[in-house]
């Protein structure tokens, strides 16, 4: 049973380009959460999605960032017109049920975005 | 507002010693806490959790203590091993119950 799969593992973008980060949840999990980790910092919650629905986007920057979790396929975190400050590790977690925050809440290995 | 933090950014111990990693939180209404271990290049890995109606919980070689009076929790690792070297984060559930709020982390270094 594969865990949470994120790709790419590393992504380099020039300022102004778009970044697309993908997350495939664990089998049987229909809840996806995105977090951002700046260097030397803890993870910061961005957005919580279920299939075709955004449940909580209270941590998402107001501009340039968007997320989706379509009926088929992985969840996508999209960053438009990237800036150097977007350089960070982006982690996805998934769970089977809402509010399932214990050992059933599984993180992927992250995508490390570098903006040059 | 909601926030958690850790007392020390780094902790160095000898193999076989017991390690204690501390965390302070600010929201007295927080009801659920988790400790995570993050190794270099990997995502956070669940270690142990505790609910606010408990003050102690034990796992394999790890113990979490919760002091609600001073809003403090700690992670104790017995007989620390080189494989325990990692960054440790405490986290609390947000008010909506939908996500986690992480502290900044303590880097544990274990020397042989």
Biggest interface reads:
A-B, 27 and 24 residues
SS summary, helix count of chain B: 0
Order of helices and strands of chain B: EEEEEEEEEEE
Q: What class would the helix/strand composition of chain B place it in?
A: mainly beta
Task: Please give the oligomerization state of what you see.
Answer: heterodimer
Number of strands of chain A: 11
Largest sheet of chain B: 6 strands, mixed
> pLDDT under 50 segments of chain A (min length 5)?
none
Low-confidence stretches of chain B: none
Q: Radius of gyration of chain A from the CA trace? A: 13 Å
The count of strands of chain B amounts to 11
What is the overall silhouette of chain A? globular
- Overall geometry of chain B comes to globular
Task: Calculate Rg of chain B over CA atoms.
Answer: 13 Å
What is the mean pLDDT of chain B?
Answer: 91
Share of helical residues of chain B: under 10%
Order of helices and strands of chain A: EEEEEEEEEEE
> How far from one another are the termini of chain A?
36 Å
Could you say which structural class the secondary elements and strand pairing of chain A correspond to? mainly beta
What is the percentage of strand-forming residues of chain B?
A: over 45%
Average pLDDT reading of chain A? 93
Topology:
The complex is a heterodimer of chains A (116) and B (112).
Chain A: E1 5-7, E2 10-13, E3 19-24, E4 31-37, E5 43-50, E6 53-56, E7 65-68, E8 75-79, E9 88-95, E10 106-107, E11 111-115
Parallel strand pairs in A: 2-11
Antiparallel strand pairs in A: 1-3, 3-8, 4-5, 4-9, 5-6, 7-8, 9-10, 9-11
Chain B: E1 4-6, E2 10-14, E3 19-25, E4 32-38, E5 45-51, E6 56-58, E7 62-67, E8 72-77, E9 86-93, E10 100-102, E11 106-111
Parallel strand pairs in B: 2-11
Antiparallel strand pairs in B: 1-3, 3-8, 4-5, 4-9, 6-7, 7-8, 9-10, 9-11
């Amino acid at each position: 049973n594969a865990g949470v799969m994120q790709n790419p593992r590393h992504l380099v973008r020039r300022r102004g380009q778009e970044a697309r980060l993908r997350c495939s949840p664990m089998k049987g999990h229909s809840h996806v959460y995105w977090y951002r980790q700046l260097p030397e910092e803890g993870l910061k919650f961005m957005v919580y999605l279920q299939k075709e629905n955004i449940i909580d986007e209270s941590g998402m920057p107001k501009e340039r960032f968007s997320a989706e979790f379509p009926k088929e396929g992985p969840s996508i975190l999209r960053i438009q017109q990237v800036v150097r400050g977007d350089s960070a590790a982006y982690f996805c977690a998934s769970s089977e049920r809402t509010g399932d925050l214990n050992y059933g809440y599984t993180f992927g290995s992250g995508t490390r975005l570098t903006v040059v | 507002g909601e926030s958690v933090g850790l007392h020390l950014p780094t902790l160095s111990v000898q193999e076989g010693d017991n390690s204690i990693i501390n965390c302070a939180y600010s929201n007295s209404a927080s009801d659920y806490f988790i400790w995570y271990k993050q190794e270099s290049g990997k995502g956070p890995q669940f270690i142990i959790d505790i609910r606010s109606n408990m003050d102690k919980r034990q796992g394999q070689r790890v113990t979490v203590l919760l002091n609600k009076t001073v809003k403090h929790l700690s992670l104790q690792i017995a007989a620390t091993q080189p494989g325990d070297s990692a960054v440790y984060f405490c986290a609390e559930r947000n008010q909506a119950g939908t996500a986690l709020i992480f502290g900044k982390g303590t880097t544990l270094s274990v020397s042989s």
